[in-house]
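G., the chain you wanted modeled:
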Amino acid sequence: VHLVESGGGLVQAGGSLRLSCAASGFTFSNYDMRWFRQAPGKEREFVAFISWSGRTPNYADSVKGRFTISRDNAKNTVDLQMNNLKAEDTAVYYCNKQGYWGQGTQVTVSS
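Predicted structure as tokens:
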């Protein structure tokens, strides 16, 4: 299993970023996928979930209405569109597949 996140960066509060996770080494379309994040000095926390079929996404309350998770089973990718970013969204964002993690991508939101 190999998960590679990309798309992080520095953005001003109120701005947007789109993260992407490229997956390989398993049958991507068979598995639910998740995004997590970890801010400095804090534990890793759940951000968003999408089922194998792309239906029934769900979100942490802190990002609901601002973030959208999506997947492309033909391209083996899962994306996280992040809008109206806040300083408290600053963290390393990780793609997750049942017990496997990517290396993470840094998102920094300046206020």
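The longest strand covers residues 17-24.

Shout if anything looks off.
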